[in-house]
Design goal:
- This protein has 311 residues and is α+β, with helices and mostly antiparallel strands.
- The protein is 45% helix and 25% strand.
- The strands form 3 sheets. Strands 3, 4, 5, 6, 9, 10, 11, 12 and 13 form a 9-stranded mixed β-sheet that branches. Strands 1-2 form a two-stranded antiparallel sheet. The protein has a two-stranded parallel sheet with strand order 7-8.
- The longest helix is centred in the first third of the chain and has 28 residues.
- It is rod-shaped.
- The chain starts with a helix and ends with a strand.
Length: 311
Amino acid sequence: MELYQLRAFATVAETGQLTRAARRLHLSQPALSAQIKALEEELGQVLFERTPGGMTLTPAGRGLQDSIGQVLAAADTLKARAQALRHDVVARLRIGTVSDPDFIRVGPLLNIAVARFPHLEIELHNVFSGAALDQVQSGALDASFYFGAIAHANVKGLALREMVYRIAAPADWAERIRGADWPAIAAMPWILTPPTSTHHALVEAMLGEHGLSATKQAEADNESVIANLVRAGVGLSLLREELALAMQEEGQVVIWAPAGLVTKLWFIYSTDRVRDPAIAAVLKLLRELWRLPADDSDVKLLVGAPAAAMP
């Protein structure tokens, strides 16, 4: 049986007349009569009796009326849900996170994503920035936060903000670093990150400009751990300027003033996913969250320099 036949039954039962029912359904009376007859034949029941006053339900018709109403209600619900999904995004995204979650605003992003796109499932994976780039290229991640700028023709990025890094040393090293030159700084104990990290590449590039390399004392894979080790006196390292300044204000570290690196925080994704509705949805939310232009003027291939030294 067809839904239009059930709707014809319900309309005739409600109006009690073929004429009114046909007008409401935008059908001719013969066409409506044919639909009712076809439904009766399929169900094997006579559903209506013709009377001088119109059409009345038979006992069989009354017995089926509620069930037919439920079927039609379910069909209407299904249709409404399907229409709603046209404006929703039904997908699962694996997104890489780097740095401090508060700094990259992961919490607010998920809050508005849940409210705006309730069927967009987001999985967060904490990764090194350099590894994030590789995993976006390979498809292991659908997208990722990323800092730095490396030429990759198949990766696009939405620039979120500038990031500044400063060299921070333990607070009791204040006299030790005052007046120190680049060779002296490079020779001091350093807390580095694994080679796959953009942080590691920034340190290498910064010291490499002076023909130097860092003296590795320890390795850590987490910004908060690095900050803790600097505070504990293990060595110096690159820290985000906001974090370094806050720790210096509290007397936990000292900043070596001559050095600073400027790079960018990005949200990256494969060029193959440019038209992906889920990626487009997240980009829209990020633009709102970071108050960025609504067009693509801030979306670029990652072809810039790795980082720039502060003047």
